[in-house]
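Need a sequence for this fold. Nothing fancy.
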């Protein structure tokens, strides 16, 4: 069995991974200008303020773009080919890169409504993914 690809759920990203483990998708948000973004950064990408927090996202979005992967880029993904990696535009605005679950690759379309689902990889790491709404 291949070793899974595991993100490091520490440092600046710790709150994101803790909430994902609880089945919630969160975004960083600036306390100054209100802008929300992903991935986590040490300061607001809009106004550069350093006072930020986390807010729960609805978990809903649409497929902005996608690709069908036919050749696994890592041995841990070999049993999943073909699979879809998408850029999902969240209802809150930020775009996230994630896998699409629950749809065959030929069913995925730009503009397709999706919702967050959560895939436990280890007891410490749960990956947010998306599935058709």
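Here you go.
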């Amino acid at each position: 069995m291949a070793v899974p690809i595991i993100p490091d759920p520490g440092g600046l990203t710790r709150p994101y991974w803790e909430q994902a483990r609880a089945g919630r998708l969160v975004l960083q948000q600036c306390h100054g200008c209100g802008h929300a973004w992903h991935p986590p950064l040490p300061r607001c990408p809009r106004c550069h303020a350093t006072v930020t927090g986390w807010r729960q996202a609805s978990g809903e979005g649409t497929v902005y773009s996608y690709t069908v992967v036919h050749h696994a880029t890592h041995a841990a993904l070999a049993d999943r080919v073909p699979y879809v990696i998408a850029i999902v535009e969240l209802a809150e605005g930020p775009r996230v890169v994630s896998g699409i679950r629950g749809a065959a690759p030929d069913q995925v379309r730009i503009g397709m409504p999706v919702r967050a689902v959560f895939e436990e990889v280890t007891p410490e790491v749960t990956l947010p993914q998306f599935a058709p709404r």
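For context: The first helix runs from residue 14 to 21.
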